Each structure stands twice: as C-alpha cells, then as structure tokens.
Request: fold
Amino acid sequence: MKLNNKELEQITGGVSVWAVIGALAGLIFGVGAVDGYARPPRCRR
Reply:
C-alpha cells in the first residue's frame, strides 16, 4: 500500500526534537549533580 503526501503528513508519533533535547539536558544535569555530590568543589580562600 502506497501513501500519498497528504496521508503521510497526517501520520503522528515518534520522538520529537524537544523530547531529545529534554532528555540530553536531563542527562547532563544528572551527571553534573552526581559529580558535584561525589567530588564537592573546595573553597579557594
């Protein structure tokens, strides 16, 4: 079965760009939080 362009545009689903950006931001934040907890920065006074 072949779909024309109009039918293809009506198909929904998959992963959006914002979902990928959000997942990467969450991952980066999580890595930073774990790193800060495991190796807290020292005061430089």
